[in-house]
């Protein structure tokens, strides 16, 4: 099982490599006074516990709620879990548009070797989009 604290991932890399079939626990800690709805593309995850329901991990063990979005309350937290059973790059982000632009987003990359073996390539249009986003983020995001 992998445990990931997103606080440490928002370091400018924007991606995290995940082994195929890994069970991934993600801890989201909201340190501001606004709510953050986080969404994971391509997967359903289990909501293990939140600050609103901190005992859920123990009360509902094995019968957790499954979603693709979890809302992190103001000054709250959540623990979610998913199985990395689909090769690809899966976007994980806050669903508030300007929060994504501010950096509350990353990609979980699962089994890139399998994608390459299957002949998947990144198109020139996709590469141009990535370059444009990197340029925008470098210009508009400060540390």
UniProtKB/TrEMBL annotation:
<dbReference type="InterPro" id="IPR002355">
    <property type="entry name" value="Cu_oxidase_Cu_BS"/>
</dbReference>
<dbReference type="InterPro" id="IPR045087">
    <property type="entry name" value="Cu-oxidase_fam"/>
</dbReference>
<dbReference type="GO" id="GO:0016491">
    <property type="term" value="F:oxidoreductase activity"/>
</dbReference>
<keyword id="KW-0479">Metal-binding</keyword>
<protein>
    <recommendedName>
        <fullName>Plastocyanin-like domain-containing protein</fullName>
    </recommendedName>
</protein>
<dbReference type="InterPro" id="IPR033138">
    <property type="entry name" value="Cu_oxidase_CS"/>
</dbReference>
<keyword id="KW-0560">Oxidoreductase</keyword>
<dbReference type="InterPro" id="IPR008972">
    <property type="entry name" value="Cupredoxin"/>
</dbReference>
<dbReference type="InterPro" id="IPR011706">
    <property type="entry name" value="Cu-oxidase_C"/>
</dbReference>
<feature type="domain" description="Plastocyanin-like">
    <location>
        <begin position="16"/>
        <end position="113"/>
    </location>
</feature>
<dbReference type="Pfam" id="PF07731">
    <property type="entry name" value="Cu-oxidase_2"/>
</dbReference>
<dbReference type="GO" id="GO:0005507">
    <property type="term" value="F:copper ion binding"/>
</dbReference>
